[in-house]
Amino acid sequence: MLLTLPAVGLVVVALLLPLIYLLCTAVRDPELRATLPRTAAMLRAWDGQGLPDEAVFAALVEEAREAAEGQRIGGLAQRLNFERTGMRGLLLRAAESEVAAPYAMGLPALDRNWADPAVWHVLRRASVGVTPLYLLRAVDLDMTAEGDVAVMAERPFLPLLSRTLWIAGMVTLLCLVIGFPVAMSIAAMPPMWARVALGCVLVPFWISIIVRTTAWFVLLQREGPVNSVLMALGLVDHPLQIMFTRFAVYLAMVHVLLPFAVLPMLSVMRRIDRRFARAAASLGAPAWRRFVRVTLPLAWPGVRAGGLIVFMLASGFYITPALMGGGGDQMLGAFIAEYATASLNWGMAAALGLMLMAGVAAVTLAGLGLARLALGRAA
Length: 379
Hints:
Layout: H1 5-27, H2 31-35, H3 37-45, H4 54-69, H5 74-83, H6 87-96, H7 103-110, H8 117-126, H9 133-138, E1 141-143, E2 149-151, H10 157-188, H11 191-202, H12 209-219, H13 225-232, H14 246-269, H15 275-282, H16 287-315, H17 319-324, H18 332-342, H19 346-378
Helix pairs in contact: 1-19, 3-4, 4-6, 5-6, 10-14, 10-16, 12-14, 14-16, 15-16, 16-19, 18-19
């Protein structure tokens, strides 16, 4: 048991702790409490009826000015604007203005939106420190001014999740269909030739994903080698638009992920006793029945392992679809990277990551259940 402690520690540090942190990040909402602490405390005590009193208006203006002078207001303005468009400019104008007391009259005179209770409800929800906003937006839901949950007018993320899972599923299917006969052939080869074939399968691991994707980018251009060969052979009379299509995404992703499907299947197929297939043949079973009743069930652990590895890796791809696909071929990973690096919206990135993880887990469990049912019926 002591020898297993390093592996257990690695699982805890590399898997469980990041998942817990991801979940916490998806619901944390610290910006208002950190930037405007007195205002946040007053808003939490406010009953939400009408508009807050003068003390809340005064605290907001004073703390917003202090935050603007200390250059600490940008994160809060970005967070509020994510929930309600226009909040960034509204808050910055309040911080930079020369409005004087009474602020309950001066702020609405500066901008009439300060007389809208919905604006104050946004601030009140942000003062709690925990929010369901990011998780709701990840599934195309939103919060109304009254705090109720409603469906967004534009629904970008659920279709994006469906597209991601569909592309990952198709890539997984293609890798298994192409890789199964490859693994079976290598398993049947003499040892020397099997080593050569296995080396050919492993060659892509020696080249980075970006380099391989860039190579396909060059090959599939309208003026690239592929179109040149097709035109030289007379198969087409004008260059085909291959780049920025779903076909290009599938082609590049299958090229990258195919070894991950072949290796697990090969490791299982090498241990299959070939006498089983010969016994089935001697009993009169045709080739297709031997494959369905003997070979496939025995190879199923490798097929399952290879399919799981490919599907999970494919669902997180974003570099290859970003380079090879068009606007309708982008996957969820690209948007997670956008929120994490460009927008610096860690809450939304974490929420989308959780949604992707849940979607992958659901599809994986459903696929394994259906495959087990199909194998059971075939047997």
